[in-house]
Amino acid sequence: MNKVFVFSKKLKTILMAGAGAGLVLALAGYFVGTIDGHRFWANVLLNGFMIIGLCLGAGFFVAVHLIAESGWQTSVQRIAEAMASKIWLGAIMMLLILLGVHSLYHWSHTEHLDHILQMKKAYLNMPFFIIRMLVYLGGWIFLLHNIRKVSLMSDNNPDIKLFNRLRTLSGLFIVFFAITSSTSAWDWLMSIDAHWFSTLYGWYTFIGMFVNSIAVIIIFLVVLQKMGYMDHVNDEHLHDLGKYLFGFSIFWAYLWISQYLLIWYSNIPEETTYYVTRVKGFETLFYVNVLVCFVAPFFALMARGNKRRTDWLLIVSLIVFVGHWIDLFIAIMPGAVGAEKAHIGLFEIGLTILYVSVFAWFVFKALTKGNLVPENHPYFKESFDYENIK
C-alpha cells in the first residue's frame, strides 16, 4: 500500500485552474451583476462558514472515534485529520467577515436598535462578538492542531502514551466543541435574523457541518483511490462511511422538520416570520434543499449494495455537498440580502469554486506531511478484521 501521498504537478495544476476559474467567475459576477455590500459579505460568510464547518466536522469525526476507541475509521482517519488541521484556514476566512459586519448584522448598527434588540444588547454587541469569535477560533485551532501533531508523532513512535494523549485532547475538543458549535451558530448565522431564535438551531447547524464533512471525506477518499492511493480501504469501510452519510442525513431531516413543525404549530408571528420569508422569497430553493439533503441520499443509499459502490458514493456525496451549500444559502441570504437581491449567479458560483479549490489545495498539501496509513494506531489492524452484518 502507498503510505505517503505525493502532491503531483497535475493535481496542483487542476486546483490552480479551479481557483483561477472561480476568481474569474466571481469578478465577472461582481462587475457585471448588481453585487452590493450585503450580497458580497453574505457570500464571504457563507463560504467561510462552509469551510470552517468542514474542518470542525472532520475534527469531530476524528475525536469522537478516538474517545470511543473505534477501530474501523483508522483506515480513513488521516483524511479527516488533514481536513481538520486546516482549521486555521477556515479561521482566516471567518475573520474576514469582521470587515463587513455592518452589512450582515443589523444589530451592529447601535443607533437603530428597537426594544427587542436593546434587550439583547448585552450579548449582541461588537466587542463581545469579537471576543467570542477569537475564543472559538483560538480553542479550535489549538486543540485540532495538537490532535494532528500527536497523531503524526505516532508514525515514528508506537508508544501507547501517544494514543492516550490523543484521547485526552479529543475529550477536551468534544467538550469545547459541544458548547461552541451552538454559540458560534447563534453568533454567525442566527443573529442575522436577530429578532428570531430557535433552541434547535445549534443542533441543526452542527449536524449540517457533520454530514457535509462526511460527504467531503468520501470525496477525498474516492479521488485518492483513483490516483492509486488508499488501496487498503475495502468495501466494509466504504459501507460504514455510506451508513454515516445515510443515517446522519436522516438525522438532519429530523431536526429540520422538528424545528419547522414546532414553529408552524405554535403559529407565533415572531417565530413564523423566519419561514414565511424563506418559503415566499426562496420557494424553489426551500424545497430543493430538502430534496437534495434528505430525499436524494435517503433513496440513493437505502440499498446495502449502494453503500459499497465507490462511484455511486462519490455522486451522492457531491449531491449532499451541494445540498448543504444551498442549506447555508437559505440560512444566510434572506436576512442578510433579502429575496429581491439574493440569487445564485456567477459571483456565488465563482466564489464557492475559489474557496473549495483553495481548501482542497491545503488539504492535499497536509496529506503529504505524514503517512496515509496510521499503522501504529493500536486499532489499525482491527480495522481489517470486521464485516458489516448482511
Automatic annotation (TrEMBL):
Keywords: Membrane, Transmembrane, Transmembrane helix. The chain crosses the membrane at residues 12-32, 44-67, 87-108, 128-147, 168-189, 201-224, 244-265, 285-303, 312-332, 344-364. This is Quinol:cytochrome c oxidoreductase quinone-binding subunit 2. It comes from Saccharicrinis fermentans DSM 9555 = JCM 21142.
